[in-house]
Amino acid sequence: MFRGNFEHTIDAKGRVSLPVRYREILSTQFDGRLVITHFDSCLLAFPYQEWLAFEDKLSSVSAVDEQVQLFKRYFIAGAYECSLDKLGRILIPPNLRKHAALEREVVFVGSVKQIEIWSKDRWEKVFSEAQEKFKETRNVLATKFGL
Predict the structure, then answer these.
(1) Which among 7, 15, 11 is positioned nearest to 118, based on CA atoms?
(2) Domain that includes residue 61, residue range
């Protein structure tokens, strides 16, 4: 589904063009809506239907479990539905932009069923760390998942 990374700029109002390839996937395989929430030092964007499937899975775990409550308060309560405008842009709410330090240069990163949205500076650091640890990670995943 979502793969690759694409650099874009975000305007002062928080509008940013979604990469054309991702727009094609959203319009042909989904209904064009995204749900965006905070995650680590970036944002995660789910196609609306994938978000609903995620919520269904989450609803099957105990609602009184303290860890589940904490997760919902942060991850679910911070989620916003964002639709594409006629120009293929999404509007990222101010609190999400602040969380991910999105000011001018933005990187969209495909993560199979989700899209990560990073500030360019943060992405470059995270990608560099991933490069350094790739061989070790590859070996662990190969053993664990038979890749």
Answers:
(1) 7
(2) 5-121
